[in-house]
Write a structure and sequence with these properties.
Length: 564
């Protein structure tokens, strides 16, 4: 054989070997349930969670409950839900109108499968809430207790989300379903001709895995991360959304515990990003690929005007390093263009959105004596740490240790470093919005040029950001939003200004027993949220009017309390 033939044969041999090796090396699914129970992608309709309109202020009551949900067709899956559904109800709020939410913990005393005590703490992610209403991890509400949270709604319009933050069980509680959207609007947003009403849709993306009996499986591989094989959008596996020939606004939230996403349309059409975690960007930015780490929010406008009715376009996930892929985790959902008549109002993206955003105008060269705070993210002795400390160290200090103590309204630079090549850490700073200045000295992605509260700190990266410690004083958490990392124990805190009796996260507003009215509010039992299974082809979500126009989430069924 000539040398060339040898090369050919070995190339063939390598190709022949590659296939079975690939099959062995790559698990097809993570779930243990029969494959026939998992729906084929794009066969189920897009759904949106029901809406609670809190724009008038006052107090909303929400119960955290375990209920059975139908996530896989014909399969009952016990979930933890705000009002027993997941995602929980989308709450509408208005800038300048504070809103109270009385949350009762009516979960089973112990998780039926995993045995832990189901204490909770509610965090409104994206809100400058006071420390005692910020879901401080150790400020827990035990089963049978309630707590009334006060949300000031004093920032610019944005896509927030509320999710559990109970110490050491944030990951399990959020994975079980305690996560939902909270949309705050304002006059600036009202004035913009961007898609609204039924053309403004939430897209809560999360991966799950299912045990043989249909319950959710939890495996975080020694607190490394949980990677499910079933991709849900608003609680529905790989849905199909019928769209009219116009622009739509999607409020993308990566609510996965550990899976990073890199989204791209199947036809590689550009997407127009109009808002980041902290609301509208100064200017829209177009991109073909959008990386979305856990807890990041991006509002994206996609224009379907150019497509013939019947065209199908998929939203794909190209994956990120150090997230485990399965056969269908490269698929998220599908858009199916229709010939339907549509309302052509608010079908635009202006060249400027929020050019005066205060955070995006911050300039380190204009702040004499600006301080730089450094955070180092790493793992040692199989524990995740920030600056070599854990949340347990904070607890041992009676919640006093802090990594920074900015004065009210102080502007600082923070530098977050991840020296590991094997992990990425989407790092969240509570209370503030920030501007990402650089990543390893290079400019951030164009779609990151908006106010952020989570920074994707990739493998061997240092992210430099600037922020202003406005709105409140007191102690706030900083943590990795890979929730198994956060729980074990990559979380620390900072203090703005000084502590007072009115801003102590542990003692200013502790939970009280249900019925006694924790926080001085009487808790009204929540009505049964069960609705008949009526899949809807066309979403009518995120109504700008009353909650009654919301599409109910179909197929939550009767409560099954499995106590032990
Ligand atoms: Cu989205 Cu401290 O969390
Ligand atoms: Cu937060
Ligand atoms: Cu992490």
């Amino acid at each position: 054989m000539s040398r060339r033939d040898v090369l050919k044969v070995s190339a063939l041999g390598a190709a022949a070997l590659a296939l079975p090796f690939e099959r062995v090396a790559r698990a097809k699914t993570a779930s243990k349930i029969a494959e026939s129970k998992i729906p084929r992608p794009y066969t189920l309709p897009f759904k949106v969670p029901p809406v609670i309109d809190g724009r008038g202020g006052g107090t909303i009551t929400i119960a955290q409950k375990m209920q059975n949900a139908v996530i896989l067709p014909g399969v009952q899956t016990p979930i933890f839900g705000y009002n027993g559904i997941t995602p929980g109800p989308t709450i509408l709020a208005r800038r300048g109108t504070p809103l109270n939410i009385a949350v009762s913990n009516e979960l089973p005393a112990k998780h039926p499968n995993w045995g832990y005590e189901a204490w909770t703490s509610v965090h409104l992610h994206g809100s400058a809430s006071k420390p005692q209403f910020d879901g401080y991890a150790s400020d827990i509400t035990r089963v049978g207790q309630t707590k009334t949270y006060q949300f000031p709604n004093n920032q610019e319009s944005r896509t927030l989300w509320y999710h559990d933050h109970g110490v050491h069980h944030t990951a399990e509680n959020a994975y079980m379903g305690l996560a939902a959207m909270y949309l705050m609007s304002d006059e600036l947003e009202d004035r913009l001709p961007i898609p609204k009403g039924s053309h403004d849709l939430p897209m809560v993306i999360a991966d799950k895995m299912f045990a043989a009996n249909g319950s959710l499986m939890y495996d975080d591989e020694g607190h490394s991360g949980l990677y499910g094989d079933v991709m849900l959008v608003n609680g529905q596996p790989w849905p199909n959304l019928k769209v009219a020939k116009r622009k739509y606004r999607f409020r993308i939230l990566n609510a996965s515990l550990s899976r990073g996403l890199r989204l791209q349309l199947s036809n590689s059409a550009p997407m127009t990003v109009i808002a980041t975690d902290g609301g509208l960007m100064p200017k829209p930015q177009t991109t073909v690929q959008l990386r979305v780490g856990m807890a990041e929010r991006y509002e994206v406008v996609i224009d379907f005007a150019q497509y013939a009715p019947g065209t199908k376009i998929q939203l794909r996930n190209l994956g990120v390093p150090n997230s485990r892929d399965f056969d269908n985790t490269d698929k998220v959902m599908q858009f199916e263009v229709t010939a339907d008549a549509f309302d052509a109002a608010n079908n635009d993206v202006p060249a400027e959105l929020n050019p005066q955003n205060e955070i995006m105008l911050l300039d380190e060269t204009k702040v004499p004596g600006i301080k730089t705070v450094k955070l180092d993210l790493h793992r040692s002795n199989s524990t995740w740490k920030v600056n070599n400390t854990t949340w347990d160290d904070i607890v041992k200090s009676n919640y006093q240790t802090v990594v920074a103590n900015p004065q009210p309204d102080e502007v600082q630079i923070w530098e977050i470093t991840n020296k590991s090549g094997g992990w990425f850490h989407p790092t969240h700073i509570h209370l503030v919005d920030f501007k990402i200045l650089s990543r390893n000295g290079k400019a951030p992605f164009n779609y990151e040029l908006g106010p952020k509260d989570v920074a994707y700190v990739g493998e061997n990266e240092t992210v430099r950001l600037i922020t202003k410690f406005a709105h409140q004083t007191g102690r706030y958490m900083i943590h990795c939003h890979n929730l198994p990392h956060e729980d074990h124990d990559m979380m620390t805190q900072f203090r703005v200004g000084t502590d007072t009796v009115d801003n102590d996260p542990m003692t200013s507003a502790p939970a009280g027993p249900i019925g006694a009215g924790g926080g001085g509010v009487t808790v009204i039992p929540v009505v049964n949220t069960s609705t008949p299974a009526t899949p809807t082809a066309t979403p009518t979500a995120v109504p700008t009017t009353a909650a009654t126009t919301a599409t109910p989430r179909p197929a939550t069924t009767t409560t099954t309390r499995r106590r032990r």
